[in-house]
Amino acid sequence: MFKKITIGTLDNPGWWVDVYFEKNVSSKKIQLFKIHHTDFDWVFAYIEDNKFIASGDSQKLSKIIRYIIEYAEIKLVDKYKFLNLLKWLSNWYTNECDEYWEHLYGIKGEMNEKGDVFIQIDLDETIWEDEYFNPILKCEKIDTKFIIKCKFSELVDNLIIFKNWIESLQG
Question: Quick one: which of 105, 70, 106 has its CA closest to 89?
Fold first, then answer.
């Protein structure tokens, strides 16, 4: 159904998600939803040609991904566990934002139609940048980047590893 999903952080701060479908969904731009309460509480999504495009504030990643899961009919063993991990990741990202860090660093990810996932989490200029991480499963730390390379079916386990590592260092 889709060729690729890309995810990244915005420097305002927030998230963007693009889903590239195999075929055109619509020849016109279709607004799916647009909510703008404040500069810190907003989200929107639309479809144009073969692309689903969404953005939201720093706390809206799980809402955007939940919508994509439902729209693209992506099967998950434990959707709520996955979405809760995304909420945790959003909180971690939001806590790192200090009106400087988010302009230079962030999180980016990609998944192809075969279910191969790549996620890079910048640890530059955080308290974790110099911390040692022993590679586990499909996770490794290269310099100041935490990298996950796995299949989509393994993503929850690998996100849990990142979460547990961060929480273990927080004391």
Answer: 106
The two structure tokens encoding residue 21: 């479908």
Q: Which of 110, 81, 107 is nearest to 95 (CA)?
A: 107
For residue range 156-165, what is the model confidence (pLDDT) as tens digits? 999 999 999 9
Residue pair 105/124 in contact (Cβ under 8 Å)? The answer is: yes
Look up the pTM and report it: 0.93
Closest residue by Cα to residue 63 from 95, 17, 20 = 17
Residue 39: burial class (beta carbons within 10 Å; 0-12, 13-18, 19+): exposed
Both structure tokens of 22: 């195999």
Task: Report yes or no: 128 and 166 within 8 Å, Cβ to Cβ.
Answer: yes
Q: How far apart are CA 62 and CA 81, in angstroms?
A: 11
